[in-house]
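Box 4.2: Ligand-aware structure prediction
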Amino acid sequence: MQMTETIRELTDRRSVRAFLDTPLTEEEKTAILLASCNAPTAGNQQLYSILDITDQGIKDRLAVLCDNQPFIADAPLVLIFAADQQRWYDAYLLENADPRRPEEGDLLLAVTDACIAAQNAVTAAHSLGIGSCYIGDIMENCEAVRELLCLPPYVFPCAMLVFGRPKPFVPGSRKPPRFDLKDIVFENRYMQKTGDELRSAMAVKNSGMKPYADWVRAFCKRKYDSAFSREMSRSLREYLAPFSDRSDQL
Ligand SMILES: Cc1cc2nc3c(=O)[nH]c(=O)nc-3n(C[C@H](O)[C@H](O)[C@H](O)COP(=O)(O)O)c2cc1C
């Protein structure tokens, strides 16, 4: 396989959830933020804002609101990547460009933009020896999160990242395994797998001792059918409702 320093770092990176107390330097933080902002961005619009959470009280609250994950409060750097349709919409309004209201498609494009910027931060941090972990639960409890962060209507927090210098990994632990390439890359057209093909592809994710079917059922309950997953969908429905109200455009 072709190997470069960048590919090696992308392949070696693991999520880090235990951090040393040492803060990041301002230079490190600026380097991470600049790497983020140099990511590809739709129409060069940078449809995102980045909230740098330095207030310990806000970190503590986020640790609770994001499915009670205490390591959030202990992270030396916490960045929230928010899909931001507000900036351009306000600019259009200010200059009487007569814009339509932001719609679902604009939101998806902004979420894509924000996540790509976030991933640049992960990669830049890793190259500096700084670990990170995404927190998807920032999309839960939308009312409380929006109030905490003073978000205007067209700003949607879609990714949170916590960063810090890694504590050593537990001996023997390893990066969670990925699907084989043959099970995830399709040539030209999508091919839905047969039952046996699917079982064979999925088995790589079962690193425990449980028989495959028991493991799948337990995983479904713990992740897909979990309280946090339901809360995230409720939050999103709540946030998205005004987007489909087109009554002002009839
Ligand atoms: C969108 C997204 C949301 C995630 N949310 C969480 C989270 O809330 N808590 C957590 O500990 N890890 C979270 N993770 C980290 C994943 O669990 C981790 O990336 C995955 O298990 C693969 O492990 P690796 O990053 O070490 O390769 C999230 C990752 C992504 C991409």
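In the box above, the bound molecule is flavin mononucleotide. The pocket of flavin mononucleotide is lined by residues 14-15, 17, 69, 133-137, 175-176 (CB under 6 Å).
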